[in-house]
Amino acid sequence: MVARKRLRWVGLVLIALGVSFAIAFPDSARQAATLPLLASFSLGRMAAAYLLALVFAIAYGTTMALSKRAAVVMLPLLDVLQSVPILGFFPAALVFFVATFQGHPAGLEIAVIFLIFTSMAWNMAFGVYESITTIPKDLEDAARVFALGDWLRFRRLVFPAMVPKLVYNSMLSWSNGWFFLVASEIFTAFGATYARPGLGAFIADRGDAGDVAGILIGVGVLAAVVLTLDALIWRPLSIWSERFRIDTTGTGQPVPRVSGVYERLAWLPRFTRLRQWLGSRVRPLMERYSRLATRFDRATSAHRQVMRAIRWIDLGMFLAIFVVVVGSGLAGLSTLLLKPLPAAAYTIPEATLRSFSRLALAYAVSLAWTIPAAVVIARNPRASRVLTPVIEVSASIPATALLPLILGFAIAIAPSQGTGTELAAFLIALFAMQWYLLFNLIAGVRAIPGDLDEAARAFGLRGLAYWRRLLVPAMIPSLLTGSITAWGAGWNALVVSEYIRFGGVRPYTVTGLGSLIDIATFDVPDSEVLLLSILTMVLVVLAMNKLLWRPLFKRAIKRYRLEG
Amino acid sequence: MAAPFLEVKHVSKSYFEAGKEFKVLETVGFELAERDFVCIVGPSGCGKSTLLRIIVGLDTPTAGSVRFEGKPLVPENPQVAMVFQSFALFPWLTVEQNVELGLEARHDPPERRHAQARKFIDAVGLAGFENAFPRELSGGMKQRVGIARALAVEPLLLCMDEPFSSLDALTAQSLRDEILQLWSTPDLPPKAVLMVTHSIEEAVYMADRVIVLSNRPGRVVAELEIDLPRPRNRKEPEFFGWVDEIYSLIV
Ligand SMILES: Nc1ncnc2c1ncn2[C@@H]1O[C@H](COP(=O)(O)OP(=O)(O)OP(=O)(O)O)[C@@H](O)[C@H]1O
Ligand SMILES: [Mg+2]
User: Fold this and answer.
1) Rounded Cα–Cα distance for residues B149 and A143 (Å)
2) Cα(A381)–Cα(A370) distance, rounded to whole angstroms?
């Protein structure tokens, strides 16, 4: 009751603030009124891309896991796709879709959804593959002994086994997706600006107009949407997914029920009643689903041939796509290599080095603050209570949405425009990278078993020794996981951070691979330089993953794994 | 003469590693009649699990055959059910859903499934735990679920691979008695039980007949009729006599 009363006060204050804001800045208020609609457009794009990615990930991952022969080609392909900084292809893909649809909005819409899809799909497909290949053998045996048909086996064994990784990767995919959504809703090429109505376009547009209040409102609404989704969908889903974790050791531990998460939200007005109403609607649907599923099982086991045919068609489709992709890639490469290199190509090594140093600096700065911050947050309940909401809100804002603010800030404090742009490029990379590190590190510290910590303290481990013997080793695996993701995000950020177009004036650029790609697409269209730059980026990312992160990760897993 | 209930004929199994043959089972043969309770014992690694996997159709023999009621065994035979040493319960399904698994595979309508599952959950003494998840249960309770799941499909033959070896002694003993109880109740399945164990005492306590396998490659060394009256008493000298005899066969 007290909570409800306080809530009413908060509501009144918010409304009063809103009204006074509207009176003070009537223009921004008028803009803000359109935001719910814009937010729903953006959300719709995200949802469409996510559904596509989900279907793709399940189909691709399952096919790969069930057919060893298919995996031979599909696995490396996915590995490459995952390492490719998608934003590198982003300008080229946009141009392609716009040209194909001759500037029709539908083409743009497809381009945006396609790009978000590419930022969401690969890690999910990997998650599916890993989950299926690690299903314990005794469960497979039980499924065979009890004669589970194909479809029932999928429903009862294969799909549940992929739920934990699918949910975890979906959360990652959504935060990737927001980053790309904001970057792709608006862009300028060939002297024209193409935009689809949405939150990302709104923020970029306010940025062009130099309307700081407008930018802040846009960013605020975006953060609110992200956080709401998190509270209502992802948090409950990740608790629900606990149930699907396979661990053979657990005995006598309660399995968390999802309803608990929603009970925590019961202070929201009418929330409980709404939930009950939804529940009463959904339950009959579930029962009908169960009945239908049984009938479907019977039908599919009667038509095994059909099921097998579908699987072959599935496989055939993927192979066809593979052949087309690899074929066109090889064709492009061979024409490229047969011709003498264009002059601009010789700038690639320097650009790569510059981009790399920029990312390395951002990575170092991220590490410098996230390691102590993670320890404090994971260890100190009071700090966690104060800081977690702040960090969650900040992390919910994709770096691309902060672009205008960061650029404005950087130019304002820098002595010259050159250093200002350089600073902006660095800051955007920092914002794209740091959260992955922070969240992974917090999880790493939290995963230290209580008894290990107590033992360390009982033996008098303190200060530096405590860090060296317990904290750092415990953090290393999650540090590496975070680093891989952070660097991936960093490479992606290059295309938006090194070449920032603002209003009608010349773009702000710094030397780097990202700006090389942008310039070759928009300013001086040059497909050879474009292809070479993208290729360089892919090679660098693949090399880092294969030669640096994977070996480190393997060693870390061996040495520092916390068996508990 | 009617075909035997289960006939294992000249079953051999080899694995090939780097071109080298690795024999696990060599011409193993025996028969099972209805209402038989047979235990297979043998030293560790002699191929007991492999033999059972071949019998339920999870593995194929390199040579020989398994016939069930006179017909070659088809994999996924619904009349044969299995209880696993590791329980092999689906962690995301409740007790009731786990027990319904085989019924679902048979496309029983939901009402039938529920009724059948409840019957066997009651029979193994888990009434009230229908909606618990395996992770929330103790080891003994998990194995009860495994047994209920196997019995719910009303199999003619129940196969068990060291079902009690990961349980504590007390739980194992009470589950042994429950299995014997279920097996001797005429209107409940199964008709026959085939159990793999490495505990000779367990075999003598439970079986009508014990099949002793040799060291790898596994061959049938002896088939012994245990003619002790039931319920058996572990403290009787006859009981020890059987245990000692089997022990000397294995060593
Ligand atoms: N897939 C396989 N490939 C190669 N060798 C195998 C395979 N499965 C089992 N073996 C080998 O076959 C032998 C028999 O294995 P099996 O599990 O049947 O023995 P067991 O009698 O059940 O042993 P235990 O008492 O330890 O359970 C073992 O030496 C094992 O290493
Ligand atoms: Mg075994």
Assistant:
1) 12
2) 17
pLDDT tens for residues A319-331? 776 677 677 767 7
Amino acid at B109: P
pTM for the full model? 0.82
Using DSSP bridges, classify how beta strands B20-32 and B6-17 pair: parallel, antiparallel or unpaired: antiparallel
The structure tokens 């060296």 sit at A468
The CA angle A311-A315-A320, to the nearest 5 degrees, is 145
Whether B1 shows a pLDDT value over 60: the answer reads: no
Of B92, B102, B142, the CB nearest to A160: B92
Distance of CA A253 to the CA centre of its chain: 32
- Residue of A138, A139, A144, A146 best to disrupt the B interface, most CBs of B under 10 A: A146
ipTM value: 0.91
Question: pLDDT-based confidence at A564, cuts 50/70/90?
Answer: very low
Please state, in angstroms and rounded to a whole number, the distance separating the CA atoms of residues A435 and A395: 6
A102: left (phi over 0), alpha (psi -120 to 50) or beta: left
Residue B19 region by backbone torsions, left for phi larger than 0, else alpha for psi between -120 and 50, else beta: left
Cα B142 to Cα B89: distance, rounded to the nearest angstrom: 8
Chain A closest CA to B243's CA: distance in Å?
31
The answer, yes or no, to whether any atom of ligand 1 lies below 6 A from the CB of B21, is: no
Rounded distance, CA A299 to CA A313, Å? 19
B98-154 confidence digits (pLDDT tens)? 999 999 888 888 889 999 999 989 888 899 999 999 988 888 899 999 999 998 998
In angstroms, the CA B83 to CA B149 distance is 8
Q: Per residue in B44-91, pLDDT tens? A: 888 999 999 999 988 999 999 899 888 887 766 778 899 998 889 999
